[in-house]
Amino acid sequence: MKIKILQDDQSYTFRSYFELSYEAEEILAEFGYLLVKSHLSLPKTNKNLDNLLTIKEKINEILPLISLSNETARRETLVAPILLEIIRYCQCKLKIEYPLKVNNWLQGKLDYLLRSKNDLLIIEAKNDDLTRGFTQLAVELIALAEIEEQDIFYGAVTMGDIWRFGKLDRQKKEITQDINLFKIPDELMELGCILVGILEEKY
To answer: Which terminus of the chain faces fewer neighbouring Cβ atoms within 10 Å, N or C?
Structure first.
């Protein structure tokens, strides 16, 4: 018999799903979604992103000098500088701590929401535990799919120095977790090409 995880009379924030001890597959099944883990074929831009080389050099210089023991430190020193450069390339909007409420099971704040003319991208920043962080990201993607018209949604969860992507397909009711990890600063250029590529994507 299937155990019901979410209770009808209870409210859950996006953060709640990070804290639940259940497997991601079990939590996403509550929303009717299947979790798949595989290599994601992610969009990549052909644009020249040379300014990211400057960001990469700065990160290399400051990493030995700063403590990354909390989420705020990681967001301000590793995540925000990258995203600020990405929105400059894309000329897209960046919302920070963006409030979103669909219902009592889908509510909370998105760490970063990037919106271009063509697409949306959620970034969830975590201090630790990329696995449970992905569960929270997946639920945030489900919330976005409830209010936006497109069928494909991308997101990423990051601990600052490590990034993992996810993709929601609304038609298939499927969320794919990329088994690849992108490491910062070494793979910053590749990460940047993907972030810009997603925001340029047309459906």
So the answer is: N
